[in-house]
Amino acid sequence: MSVDMRTFLAHVELANPITTAAGCAASGRELAQFFDLHRLGALTTRSITMAPRAGRPTPRMAETPSGMLNAVGLQGPGIEAFLERELPWLAQRGIKTIVSIGGGTVAEYSELARRLADAPGVTALEVNLSCPNMEDRGRVFAREGSAAAEVIASVRSIMRYDVPVVAKLAPDVADIVSVARACVDAGADALSMINNPLGMAIDTEALRPSLAAVTGGLSGPAILPLAVRCVWQVHAALPGVPLIGVGGVMTGRDAFQLVLAGACAVGVGTALFHDPYACLRIERELEELLRARGFQRLADAVGLAHRPPGSAPRHLLVDTEESTP
Amino acid sequence: MQVTGTVLTTRRVDAYHALTVVAPGIAERYRPGHFVSVAVGGPYSSMVTRRALSIHDVKSDYGGTVELVFTVRGSGTAWLAERRARDTLDLVGPLGRPFPLPRDPVHCVLVGSEYGSAVLFPLADALLARGCRVDFVLGGAGAERVFGAMRARRIAETTTLTTEDGSLGLRGKVTDALPSVIADTRADAVYACAPMETLRAVTAVAMEFDIPVQVAVEEAMACGIGVCMTCVLPVIGDDGATRMVRACAEGPVFRGERVRFEDVGTIPFDALGAPGGGARHVS
Fold first, then answer.
1. Fewest CB atoms within 10 A around its CB: which of A57, B151, B217, B240?
2. CATH assignment of the domain containing A317
């Protein structure tokens, strides 16, 4: 018996909960050489900006214990080329696409939303809030509820009602729940967490920072517990809000942790650098784990770890009732 | 494609390590210039990035084998150096853009420094098969770091060796010997694989002689398949615009004169999308 892996991101149905994490699937074509992208729950694009961006100088990457640091600097083609070349390629193939956007001002995010509002093939819009706010001394939007909410409210008011707006949150905040709540109050239909926390490594031969940009985003299995904690806290405070759990997922068991903490979808990022087939493998492993525990539907496992101590999992209770004559 | 390959043999080649791995799908599709990426540290590894390795030889035995050459630089390559026969390796490949080959039987000079020379041998075989004349210029810091001198002598018309300490061949760098080799062999094209500084100098020499030069760059990569965006360098496109392109997907082989070697490690101000290169398009 197979497990029903369908999941809902707000009102949008995904065939399975596994998505690529923003910025980890380039234009989509690169992974399409390895597997059929239709087998993903959804593909999340890199964060698209208004103008083309060359990104940061190299070295952009440093391997760290159970993870890596990156400072790519949102290298990308800009919205014009994205709408001309990348999105149509995905849309023509009918690949569910979560478009990630990044900007330096509220006006830039709004303009991006305006450009994407009528573009065919946008399954959902993910707002990367970990971009420096040009109007706030370069501090990132995600660090404060009011700045994040301003962006989300503006984007939500422009985007078509049937395209969910997802706020991507950063873990580098004192209280992630308050930022999450501010985004939801501003109209976010779902939340995605976590973006890379900032880290740094120093090259002990060159006696300098390993990255040209000095600091970079930490990703990989090192940040999984951080992601589980954030998803747990936000799901506890806002149980009705769909969450995409992202951060250091390498196996189906990692994904299962995020699901049990409250995520209804799971983003896979750094694992793709290690294994181009990671999304398919993780989806298979997650389904296997659910089946072994008697789940018939993924939805029954979402947030299940929050049940009070001593109470039996609901899906097993249903099972017993059915088997009683 | 991804292949779980079995290590057939391991050997030391001068200062370097070589692993022969049974990897049928990769050997079949391989063309000179392609590389593979390998996962290091085993199934419970804490090392999340793959290592990009150059292919030195491809054979059809056992359904297809590839020989990979590397030097120990850190914990990942140290783990690879400890692999023994019958161990398995997780390989993805063949990756990258291979060397373009000339249509006519022309004279080619192949320039390699340190273990960058490894990729030139399958290229030499392909050129010889097309009736090209092949001459090698190989170099390194010392005699034990000149890769493949014996094999080069066997297959090439002439082989010129250089070492910085003078322990083998001419004292100096490959680029010190290159102009006279190009002149003597009346070369029509140059192929090179070496550290960035050497490639820059090789390109300068080839441009002086006004002959085409194809270079294979060695950039640090995390994924090797074009998704991580970390191995970029500034390259001039057909339209004259400079873009930050990926060494793994658009390379590793480039036309030498298109690579802005002096700007590697920076974002040139005139590159497409460079900071300050254009006003933010906000209406």
1. B240
2. 3.20.20.70
Tokens of A295: 């789940």
Place of tokens 């010129």: B160
DSSP B223-249: SSSSSS--SEEEEE-TTS-EEEEETTT
- Residue B156 is encoded by which pair of tokens? 């090439």
Asked whether the beta carbons of residue B244 and residue A55 sit closer than 8 angstroms, the reply is yes
B150-190 tens-digit pLDDT: 889 999 999 999 999 988 888 999 999 999 999 999 999 99
Rounded percentage of chain A residues whose pLDDT exceeds 70: 96
* Residues contributing to the annotated binding site of A for FMN: 128, 168, 194, 220, 247-248, 269-270
Count Cβ atoms below 10 Å from residue A175 Cβ, excluding itself: 10
Going by C-beta distance under 8 Å and a sequence separation of 6 or more, which residues neighbour residue A225? none
In a domain, A22, yes or no: yes
Using CA atoms, how far residue B205 sits from B79, B182, B189, B209, in Å, is: 38, 9, 11, 7
For each of the domains in chain B, give its residue range(s) and CATH number, in order of start: 2-95 (2.40.30.10), 99-218 (3.40.50.80), 220-275 (2.10.240.10)
Q: In this complex, do B227 and A25 lie within 8 Å of one another by their Cβ atoms? A: yes
Q: What is the mean pLDDT of residues B127-140?
A: 93
User: What is the full DSSP assignment across B16-76?
Assistant: EEEEEEE-HHHHHH--TT-EEEE--S-TT-S--S-EEEEEEEEE-GGG-EEEEEE---SHH
- Supply the DSSP symbol for A248: S
Q: Using CB atoms, which residue from B2, B265, B277 is nearest to A58?
A: B265
**What is the ipTM for the molecules in this complex?**
0.87
Taking only the tens place, the pLDDT of each residue in B17-44 is: 999 999 988 988 999 999 999 999 988 8
pTM of the model: 0.90
User: Could you tell me the residue range of the domain that residue A208 belongs to?
Assistant: 7-323
Q: A273 and A67 in contact (C-beta within 8 Å)? A: no
- Number of structural domains found in chain A: 1
Check if the beta carbon of residue B129 is closer than 8 Å to that of residue B38: no
Does pLDDT of A59 surpass 80? yes
A62 in any annotated domain: yes
Question: Does residue A131 have an active-site annotation?
Answer: yes
Q: Which residues of A are annotated as a binding site for substrate?
A: 70-74, 128
Average pLDDT over chain B, rounded to an integer: 91
What distance in Å separates the CA atoms of residue A265 and residue A249, rounded to the nearest whole number?
12
Measured between alpha carbons, how far is A219 from A114 in angstroms, rounded to an integer? Answer: 31
